[in-house]
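Cross-posted from the bioinformatics board.
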Amino acid sequence: MNMNVPHLHLLLNHIPTIGGAAAIALLIIAFVRKSDDLKRIALEATYVVALLTFPAYMSGVGAQQSLLTTPDVSQTFVDAHWDAAIFTFTLLQLAGAFSWLALWKWRRSGRWPTTLVTGVVVLSVLSFATAARTASLGGEIRHPEIIVSGQTGEEAQGATDAQAATDAQLDTDPGWISGRGLGRWITDKVWVWPASEALHFIGLWLILGIVLIANLRLLGFMRAVPYSAVHRMLPWAALGLAINVVTGMIFTTATPDQYGLNVSFLWKIVFLVVAGLSLLYTTVFEGPWHVDAGKEPPLRVKIAGATAILSWVLVMYFGRMLPFLGNAF
Amino acid sequence: MDPFLESLQQSALARFIGESGSLLGYPTILFLHTLSLGTIAGLNAGVDLRILGFGRGVPLGPLGRLFPIMWLGFAVSALSGLALLLTDPVTRLHQPVFYIKLLLVALGVVTMQMMRNRVFRNPSIDSGVLPPNARTLAVVSLCLWIGATTAGRLIAYL
């Protein structure tokens, strides 16, 4: 099998639309049936869709880089798709974050936080709408067969000329509500990048510290501590993750050329997905939750604890290797 | 002092770390520096947040077992930092922000040990009663690690 990043994007880009729709369907069924189990599954599904949107979005950044040198591809179409994708990504991450927080609260109290769950529903519906629009704009990038306006060859040529003019204009002033515009704003302000770097490292240790404490307990260390008590600290790791998603987006939006096709970044995203899944496991699953004070964790919980620590360390490793294994900086 | 620093920079060890192009040289040492920063600052932050009241159900006593791991983190951090310094001592030792970082790290480690001695080695720890200055130490510790991390990052830009 021979697969490159743009090809990967064509597979993964179905996750935010089809996966998002499935999660919304689950949410609706859960409410109609008033089933707590289904609510939990629907919120978990929303979180997983948000998580898998990372490889979907980032492989798109790679595809964008590959298309920069393709002569018959209009950058205007690519940019329109990118701008819509940033919007969808943001909404889906918010839906994922709300889902996580709702699941965390439910695990602690056995009740669903109404405001948060309502927030998840609203954000999921909005993000499905923007995901559909993103998909549609993406499809227009290089599928002449779906352009249905009945253009003659001459009209199409006129459109191409107009497109070239627009491309040239975009090159000078992208407007700030766009990937290119945000990127320019970030690189123009000298303080934004260093400040984001500092925050990214603070987020890094916040994640690692809390993940270490929680998962060392799941490995059998500090046995007098009930897991449900360290569980109370997990939102601090989630805060670190939120800081790093925002600052990470600042980096990739400003200089997509450093990340899109960087092999180290690809691995970083792979292990970010694994780490995100392990965070979900340690937040809501029964295994870790029932590791009471003095109790030796069962083997599968220990494996999960080791996986959590290892995957975060690998996220950091491949982040650090961006300039060495790949082309960043 | 500069001829000495330059001779350091030209030493075989410094040249292996900085110029060999081996993944085991500069890149791995930089990763170890990041991992150990994450361990020492992150575990400190976890303990500080507990002291400040997040996760009151976590008994303090067992958290004391994290301090040896923090010290291990500090050892790796200091050694890897020294190795990184070796590759470019002339630039680094003329950067004010580098000294600010060293100062903040030193204060952070002192605060960490004060926390260990006054809170975690206090006989009353198992009763769950915190000594009066525990919260102050926790806030100071958080500020110092945020400051040290920021100063460390700024070394690359200032």
